[in-house]
Amino acid sequence: MRFAGYAAVFGHPDRGGDVVRGGAFARSLKRGTGAVPLLWQHEAGRPIGRVEYLREDRRGLRVIGRLSAGAAGREAAALLKEGAVSGLSFGYRVRAAKGPSTGSGQTDGLRELTELELIEVSLVTLPMQPRARVHMVAG
Fold first, then answer.
1. I need a labelling partner for 106 at 20 to 30 A (CA). Which of 17, 19, 77, 91 fits?
2. Cα(61)–Cα(23) distance, rounded to whole angstroms?
3. What is the DSSP string of the chain?
4. Sequence ranges of the domains in the chain
5. CA atoms lying within 13 Å on the CB side of residue 91
6. 105 CB contacts (<8 Å, ≥6 apart)?
7. What are residue 21's phi and psi, to 5 degrees?
8. How far is the first Cα of the chain from the last one, in angstroms, to the nearest whole number?
9. With contact defined as beta carbons under 8 Å apart, do 61 and 54 qualify?
10. What is the pTM of this model?
């Protein structure tokens, strides 16, 4: 089974007060999609398939993934088909940001993430960014 969606959506605050800006993943994406694992609920020990496509576009970080035939991949596929899980998320390290915790003097309470090291992409039940969702499921 394949799916497509957005793991990050630019310009919209997440539940933690972070806003990812366009271009934040540019440096990280130069490593290629093979360097980014596809996980279940951010659990490093639960890979569920592989990332086939990963690019920034005007909306955010677009992902196309293929779920594996293993037990974890089959479970994720079943929950995705049923609509029980539709969230996407990503693990990261902040390389550059502006905002309250960075001492930049910004006063709107939001932290702008301008450069991120992408660690992983996950299918999740409750994404931190409510707009980060799977939009297409095939197979």
1. 91
2. 10
3. -EEEEEEEETTS--TTSEEEPTTTTHHHHTT-GGGSEEEETTEEEEEEEEEEEEEE-SSEEEEEEEE-SSHHHHHHHHHHHHTS--EEEEEEEEEEEESGGGTS---SS-EEEEEEEEEEEEEESS-SSTT-BEEEEE-
4. 2-138
5. 16
6. none
7. -100, 150
8. 5
9. yes
10. 0.91
For residues 121 and 51, the answer to whether their CB atoms sit within 8 Å is: yes
CB 7 within 8 A of CB 132: yes
CA–CA dist 106, 130 (Å, integer): 24
Model pLDDT for residues 15-52, shown as the tens digit of each residue: 999 999 999 999 999 987 778 999 999 999 999 999 99
